[in-house]
Specification:
The model has no long low-confidence stretch (mean pLDDT 87). The longest helix has 22 residues. The chain is mostly helical. The chain has 25 helices and two strands. Helix 9 packs antiparallel against helix 10, helix 9 packs parallel to helix 11 and helix 11 runs antiparallel to helix 12. The protein starts with a helix and ends with a helix.
């Protein structure tokens, strides 16, 4: 009966059955415990799982293989990776499932070094373990490594499964690796892999972030069922590639079809309103958010600032229920510079400093504001203060895919092996652009 409850996704009833079993004097065996541990994992019930662990030890089932794997999975699910590692190190019968559970645990805790070391030490790997490290690298921002692992998986004779494909597509989207993304899409179609919501959304996101909006729209239209993540991925892609009107129309269509937006959807819709100058619609969208976050406030400030409503934008910043971040302050100060309201920007920064909300990057933002207003003396003064206090601006970063390789560029980087050629080409492009604009003028 406990197994039936667990298989039917009814973990609470499974635990109730366990307690009833104990009340009538019946003791669980190793198989019973393996299902009970699954129930606790489904509920993320760390306390109940700990009690089960104690009972397992008392009855002598703690060395059983299935039970050990269940305990490791439970502790990983409940974010207790150190407890899971103790069990892993003590286990005498580790299999690929045990190793993979620990890799997933380290990925979940953000410890990619430990996950990588454990994966590389695995005596045996399968599709699931490869997918775990690929997804882990993608989730933790190691996109190039995720693609390298994806290729290594295939060279090792394993066909990528659903999870591995999603992780690789995430990496392609973040790197702008369109050729590799297209290869993965072709692989999916060639092997008749169904575009479910997760895989379909990953394809939409990849094509949108690589600039192929029409391909993203085709994937979206072909999906048999769409959730909020699919809608949001396409709305974001349209908004970020100059099709704000289409993004807002898709947002309205989503609402008409009864799909409730999430926090990211609202950010995309507000950004589209800002790009089109639709202040009233942006206000309505913002007012419809139950609990606006800092990103939503940032979008509202950007919307008002672009429209020249500097005082209203300033009041929004000062009345926020949370500390404004660099995006919020940047939106306001940039608008102040563009619209010649530098005094408002300075006063806002002073008010925030009085509330001890002076942001670490505020001098960088002030410098940008003065530059927008072409007040170069103030720019020089702020830069001197930054140098004196050793405040550094985070350098810009870009990447481009050429012939299947992703090339990265960082502003001010002097270590690139082709630095001289890059600088020469940059100067040439700059000269060509100046000649082009001179001809127009």
């Amino acid at each position: 009966m406990i197994q039936s409850f667990v298989d039917d996704s009814r973990p609470v009833e499974a635990l109730h059955c366990y307690h009833h079993m104990l009340s009538v004097g019946r003791l669980p065996n190793n198989y019973t415990f393996s299902f009970l541990l699954r129930a606790c994992s489904a509920l993320r019930a760390s306390s109940d799982g700990q009690k089960l662990h104690t009972h397992i030890i008392r009855l002598g089932w703690d060395s059983h293989h299935f039970v050990q794997n269940g305990l490791i999975h439970l502790y990983v699910t409940c974010d207790r990776v150190h407890s899971a590692r103790k069990l892993f190190d003590a286990s005498l019968s580790r299999d690929v499932i045990t190793w993979t559970a620990m890799v997933n645990g380290y990925v979940k805790s953000g410890d990619i070094e430990a996950a990588r070391a454990l994966f590389d030490a695995m005596p045996e790997k399968n599709q699931v373990s490869w997918s775990a490290i690929i997804n882990g690298c993608a989730k933790l921002g190691l996109f190039e490594e995720a693609l390298h692992r994806f290729i290594a998986m295939q060279l090792s004779g394993f066909r990528p499964n659903h999870a591995g494909l999603v992780g690789a597509l995430t990496a392609c989207a973040s790197l702008g690796a369109l050729d590799q993304g297209r290869w993965i899409h072709a692989y999916i179609d060639r092997n008749a892999i169904v575009h479910d919501r997760v895989l379909g959304t990953s394809l939409i996101d990849m094509y949108a972030k690589c600039g192929c909006i029409d391909a993203a729209v085709q994937i979206f239209d072909a999906m048999p069922a769409r959730d909020v993540f699919a809608w949001t991925a396409l709305i974001s892609g349209l908004s970020n590639h100059g099709r704000a009107s289409d993004a807002l129309e898709l947002y309205r269509r989503m609402r008409r079809e009864g799909v409730a937006p999430n926090g990211v959807t609202f950010v995309c819709a507000l950004s589209a309103c800002a790009r089109m100058g639709l202040v009233d619609e942006g206000r309505r969208i913002f007012d419809g958010i139950a609990a606006p976050g800092v990103q939503h406030y940032g979008c509202l400030v950007d919307l008002l600032g672009r429209a020249g409503l500097i005082e209203e934008a300033r009041e929004v910043v000062l009345s926020m229920p949370m500390e404004p971040d660099s995006y919020v302050l940047g939106a306001l100060l940039n608008a102040c510079g563009v619209h010649g309201e530098v005094d408002v920007g300075e006063e806002t920064v002073r008010r925030l400093a009085e509330r001890r909300l002076d942001h670490d990057g505020v001098r960088v933002l002030m410098s940008n504001m003065y530059a927008s207003a072409e007040r170069w003396d103030e720019v020089a003064k702020v830069r001197e203060e930054m140098e004196a206090e050793r405040v550094k601006k985070v350098p810009g970063y870009s990447s481009i895919e050429m012939d299947g390789f992703v090339c990265e560029f960082v502003a001010g980087d002097r270590s690139h092996p082709l630095r001289e050629e890059i600088m020469s080409m940059s100067v040439l492009v700059d000269k060509q652009m100046r000649l082009f604009y001179d001809d127009i003028i």
